Each structure stands twice: as structure tokens, then as C-alpha cells.
């Protein structure tokens, strides 16, 4: 068994003071840092949007943040501008350890497609390359932590389970946006996909 810790989007933008802040998002940082010691590999993901990204409400005239629009690949929630490449909002939380990271997987870089999952963009087919990296390293078991539970963590966990990894989400080391029941739905979807919710 070879394991990896996947740390999803522990960035300023999702922590208090950030543009898409998750309540208490920064509280999980010390626990994540400590957990890194228990894994063969540590991977960080970073939401990394170009200016004017199509997931931003500001890119659609008259649209409000947290409303839903129809994209070529299906419904897409529109967000406040967040994690724009090169801004402080997109940087990792300053307390997050990065020294043990084997790789940083950036996502949401394609202007036309959002990317919640660390494995595929929201069209569910364009890969990020993470699957290949993990397989090349011989990784079989994944633990996911980070932000946000009901979006990027859940989408990543479900894709990982479908790809055949044994997947655990440490819920105590995640934080949720919880938009219209999205957290309860995400938990159900993860459990149905065979993800262990710890
Ligand atoms: C995320 C919404 C938009 C996340 C990223 O990290 O969960 N959510 N971009
Ligand atoms: Zn984003």
C-alpha cells in the first residue's frame, strides 16, 4: 500500500478574509500540517483562475454570485471573483506547510470550463494529469482534506473513487460553503461513490 494526502485548495481565497471565504477555513491548517507526516506523498491543489474566468458572476452581465447558469457542459454555479492567478487570494494560506508537497496541481485555468475536481474539469472529461502522477508513483490509497467539502473536496473524492483509489475524506479537516443544502448532498454523493467519511 502506498498512500497520498491530497490537500485541496487551502488558499487565502477560501479562508476568512478571502473572496470566497469558508467559515473557519483556516482552523484546519495545523491539523493538515501534522497529518502530512503520515503519508508517503503529499499533493497540494490550487484553484488558479485567469482574470474574467467563466465561473465568475462578474463575467456574465446581470448575474449575481451564487446563482446558477447553463454552460456547454451543464449547470454551473457562478462565484464571486476568487483565486485569480498571481493574486494574494490565490496564494496558499501562509500557515500551510508546502515543503512536503511532491506536486502542486493547479486547476480552473481554462477560462471556459470550471474545475472543482483535482482529476477532471467540470466537463468531467478533461484531465488534470493527477491520475497519471499518482499511478506512476504506485499510489493506491488517498486521504483528502481541505476546502471546500461540498465542492472541490467532494468532486475530487468521487472522481478518485471512480478511478479505483481507496478514498477517505477526513471531515474534521475540511470546511464547507454549504449553498442550498450542498453539504448534505455532497456527503450522500460521496458515500454512494464508496468514499469513507471519517
Ligand atoms: C471551489 C468554488 C469555486 C472549491 C473552487 O475549492 O471548493 N469552490 N472554486
Ligand atoms: Zn474556483
From TrEMBL:
Pfam family, one: Isochorismatase
Any coiled-coil regions, as ranges: none
Transmembrane portions of the chain: none
Gene Ontology molecular function: metal ion binding; nicotinamidase activity
InterPro entries noted in UniProt: Isochorismatase-like_dom, Isochorismatase-like_sf, Isochorismatase_Nicotinamidase
Entry keywords, A to Z: Hydrolase, Metal-binding, Pyridine nucleotide biosynthesis
SUPFAM superfamilies referenced in this protein's UniProt entry, alphabetically: Isochorismatase-like hydrolases (SSF52499)
Keyword Metal-binding annotated: yes
Known pathway: Cofactor biosynthesis; nicotinate biosynthesis; nicotinate from nicotinamide: step 1/1
Domain Isochorismatase-like per the UniProt entry, residue ranges: 4-194
GO biological-process terms attached to the record: pyridine nucleotide biosynthetic process
UniProt KW Hydrolase keyword: yes
Protein family (similarity comment): Belongs to the isochorismatase family.
Protein name: Nicotinamidase
UniProt organism field: Jannaschia rubra
